[in-house]
Design goal:
mainly alpha; two-stranded antiparallel ribbon
Length: about 600
């Protein structure tokens, strides 16, 4: 039996160290003590804290705010603690931010800015009940919001729309989409130009797989972001004052607008635009783990594996905020995919196992584990892993998993089980990557060629159909080579013996056999065009010519065997068949001589 050539379908806030001095139970960051500029004037550091926060230079603002607090820790410095919390919030250090807001609330338990910002910090910590409690306390004073003294004194802008947006975001994280939409809509009633509220609605629609409507809503978010003072007609509940104070927060939260837009476009298979949106999100917030993770997924699909791996590493070091992906498991899964693409199979195996340790039912991670094990030659372990992949898949048929299960089973010579797996994959074949369909049909055809349950010539006819589909999607050396093998065997199966050729029925069979041989030679020639001088192709073609039976074809076969053996002198099949051919040719020549002498 000749060797088959086949391929596998692959998926294919930093923490401060603290000083020993403690102020009211809250530790100050070591970085607040400047070794280069140790100026002791309190008012200087207060002003620097405020201005740096306004300029959105949050790391420097944090240092300045803490320096001011350390100079007069007992002073009534609520604004400094709020500014410290805001800087930490923007830097993704949610726990420390919440501590700052709690310090303010110890002094003023109804401080609205502290309640609002604490709500946002607790959302970042996934403490949804605590976040709702804090937002609700703030919203108790929603009437006459702009005139609240604490908001007027606050170093920043907290419109009512922002609080409603944050509360909507909490409900979205809780997957209470109706409530989330309600609060995003309420935010837009307060300010119809609030881009983040549109982004929130877009996110809810995307969560519910309403991608077309989500795209339209995200486009509104971008339009408002680029033109925050749109002249669109106001609702009855809006005032000129609320529009004048329209939310235009050019900070890390703006990244959400680009992220949600990118996520929707990714789902709509607009990969290039999605990548651009994720890049914009990362440009605004370089520590945006979710955007980095989504970007790595697109890069993996583009086969830009090293870039994908780099983005995975950045995501693991980022803000670690996950809401609409499988979180940490998702980034380990993407990391395994990148490493598979880079052919670093042991590292890919470790990454897929990390994903599974976090989420034991992560079907795609089990799939990548199986592929890694297969690549490492551990076929039995790969079979166990791919079984977990197809069992844990939430949909009807996991096409990728079943396709890889078929390939793994073929490696274990379980070809009929492999054919069943390919059959399951074909039930949901639209979910396979189009670039890999030629490999799927090729592998299916090779399994059918080696079936023990199917009888000849049925198994060869099935295999010929599958290989034909493979060539339709993408002509390849492997497909043409295997097609040649199949046609050769179909010819062999129906070729009558020489003594039987007098029967008219056998003459028809002979013509069919010759037609199969001719097509087989054509396929081998096409394989040779794609990979010239391959000894397997040369041997395959030689065997077809040899089985053709005429002396002229046998002479051509001898030349092909000699070519194959010049490429690979030790190829045993070519050596064996060449000896058989010499014997056949000798007998043919003797027969011809005997006929001439009669």
């Amino acid at each position: 039996m000749m060797k088959k050539i086949v391929r596998l379908l692959i998926v294919t806030s930093s923490t401060f160290t603290f000083l020993t001095n403690m102020i009211g139970g809250v530790s100050l960051a070591e970085e607040t003590k400047s070794t280069e500029f140790n100026f002791k004037k309190y008012e200087f550091w207060v002003e620097k804290c405020r201005l740096l926060k306004e300029d959105k230079q949050y790391s420097q603002a944090l240092n300045a705010c803490e320096q001011a607090i350390s100079l007069k820790p007992k002073k009534d410095n609520i604004q400094l603690w709020l500014a410290r919390g805001d800087a930490l919030l923007q830097l993704g250090q949610y726990r420390e931010a919440a501590i700052s807001y709690d310090w303010v609330l110890q002094e003023d338990k109804k401080n609205v800015p502290a309640l609002v910002q604490k709500c946002s910090a607790l959302l970042g910590l996934s403490n949804y009940e605590g976040a709702l409690e804090s937002c609700n306390l703030a919203l108790e004073r929603s009437e006459n919001w702009e005139n609240i003294k604490q908001i007027k004194n606050y170093w920043g802008n907290i419109p009512l729309a922002k609080v409603l947006y944050i509360k909507g975001s909490v409900f979205r994280r809780k997957e209470e989409y109706e409530q989330a939409t309600k609060y995003f809509d309420n935010a837009l009633k307060q300010d119809n130009n609030f881009a983040l509220a549109y982004a929130g609605k877009c996110g809810v629609l995307a969560d519910q797989k309403e991608y077309v409507e989500a795209k339209e809503t995200c486009e509104k978010a971008i339009e408002r972001f680029n033109n925050p003072h749109s002249t669109e007609e106001l609702t009855d509940e809006q005032t000129d004052e609320s529009t004048k104070n329209s939310v235009n927060i050019a900070d890390a939260s703006d990244a959400i607008i680009w992220y949600e837009t990118g996520r929707v476009k990714q789902k709509l298979n607009e990969q290039a635009e999605a990548l651009n949106n994720f890049n914009l999100a990362i440009q605004v917030n370089p520590r945006y783990s979710q955007a980095l993770a989504r970007k790595s997924e697109i890069l993996n699909k583009m086969e830009r594996y090293q870039e994908a791996l780099d983005n995975c590493e950045s995501a693991l070091k980022g803000d670690k905020q996950w809401s609409d992906t499988k979180g940490l498991a998702y980034i380990w899964y993407q990391r395994s995919a990148a490493l598979l693409g880079l052919q670093k199979y042991e590292e890919a195996l470790a990454s897929s196992e990390n994903a599974i340790a976090i989420d034991h039912k992560y079907a795609e991670a089990w799939n990548n584990k199986a592929v890694s094990l297969w690549k490492l030659g551990q076929y039995e372990a790969a079979e166990k892993a791919i079984k977990e992949a197809v069992l844990n898949y939430s949909g009807s048929y996991y096409a990728q998993g079943y396709a890889n299960r078929g390939r793994i089973l073929s490696s274990l010579n379980k070809h009929d089980e492999a054919i069943l797996a390919y059959g399951y994959a074909s039930q949901n074949i639209e979910n396979l990557d189009k670039k890999s369909l030629h490999v799927f049909w090729l592998n299916k055809g090779v399994a059918e060629m080696q079936s023990k349950d199917m009888k000849e010539p049925q198994k060869y006819q099935n295999a010929l159909f599958s290989i034909g589909k493979s060539i339709t999607f993408q002509p390849s050396f492997a497909a043409y080579y295997n097609k040649g093998i199949i046609l050769s065997r179909l010819g062999d199966n129906i070729m009558p013996k020489v003594s039987e050729l007098e029967d008219i029925r056998n003459q028809k069979q002979y013509q069919k056999a010759i037609a199969n041989y001719q097509n087989a030679i054509e396929s081998f020639d096409k394989a040779n065009e794609l990979l010239p001088g391959n000894y397997l192709v040369l041997t395959g073609k030689a065997i077809v010519l040899m089985n053709w039976g005429t002396l002229d074809k046998q002479k051509e076969a001898l030349k092909e065997f000699d070519k194959a053996l010049r490429v690979n002198p030790s190829y045993s099949l070519a050596i064996k068949k060449r000896k058989e051919l010499i014997k056949q040719m000798t007998n043919s020549l003797r027969l011809n001589d005997a006929i001439k002498n009669q």
